[in-house]
Amino acid sequence: MTVHEKLFMYRVKKLKMSQRRVAQMLHVSQATLSNYESGKRQLTLDILVHIRKTYNMSPDEFKDLFDDI
To answer: Residue ranges of the chain with pLDDT lower than 70?
Structure first.
């Protein structure tokens, strides 16, 4: 599973939040978040850190995003 897919699954399964709501929390458009989650747009370090803070991910949860890389 890619980082993008893991972020999607985390939002849906753990946060149980809509893409629209999370996009608002991240201060990005819904289309931008969709592109991040689908892999159509590159995830920068800045957005990854912002996502980690917004999702309130533990360091281990954040690290798990990259286990298959």
So the answer is: 69
